[in-house]
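@channel sequence for tomorrow's demo:
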Amino acid sequence: MPRSKRPMSAMTVDVPLLVTADDRTGALEVGGAIADLGFTARLAEAPACHDDCLLLDVASRHVEGAEAGRAVVAAHSHPARRRCHKMDSGLRGNWAHEVAALLRAGHRVGVIASYPDAGRRCRDGTVYVHGVPVAEGPLGRDPRNPLPSSRPADYLHAAGCGDALPDGGVVVLDADDNAELRTAAQRCHTESRIPVGATGALAAYAALIRNRPTAVPPMLPRPALVVCGSLHPVSRRQVAELPAARFHTSEVDLAEEELRRGNDAVLATTDSTGPIAGSAAEAMASSVATSVQELLARDVVGTLVILGGDTAGAILGNRSMHVEGCVVTGVPVSRFEDHDLSIVTKGGSIGDENTLCRILA
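structure tokens (generated this afternoon):
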């Protein structure tokens, strides 16, 4: 079930940049890229007076389309000088229904489903991940969100946006490289469109407002606990490449022993390739979160690394977080506002087989 939210009517601060996302991992991912531009990025339920980038997780990935649309419109009804919405770079979720709701609310929208630095490109209206049409690759067979198409326009038509495509209310913008990504972001800025896009696209848009890159990636205290709830084969290969002891998520005591020796440890769910019902996925994520909270309470973890959006949402809950930047492309490090634990979050499909090894080198 979606997490409960504080009523957003409390939002009265006019923030320079408001970014919504359909899940917590996506919000942190785009927040890391924006923090790298020199913004102070905070994931919270309402802005503070010092915020210059507020990230809002509207928790709409797994709800009905109409509910998702209402959540995004409600978030964007509050004061902000510039605003954008993070969509899944693999076209999963309710992003097309969210676009439809923004159009009905009077906004113009530019869809930019590209993140070239992470291997995501939109060319001739088709989204490719590492050169393969997204619906034909692993994301197309996602156990919870299988994809019917690799073309954003098909999703927009299905969500009732067919008339808005020819009249220009919504445009799908190609971006095959970073130069084209900047051009697409500039068009949204010039035409007063809300960019609905992948992390790379929204970072390109934010760079039009501020671009003072930070010089040093955040340091990660050790030992690290790596938690893999993602079933994506990329995440599973990344875990397999790590030179760390691996335990099932039920083996909390064994993982604690390894961490107390000063060694990194991995907690992973059982792998599966078949479809998973939403209730089963939520139960699995909740069980993983319970195991992780036990280990965190024992004060043996220097850095927590979480793979998978549902897993991250269950572990992190609704607590406010400060996003420090990215340790590698698409992988942010954050901290709770009331705790100094370093928390690295990674979408299941992000990176290559050596990404975790680079992060924890």
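heads up for whoever presents: The chain has two domains: 8-206, 224-359.
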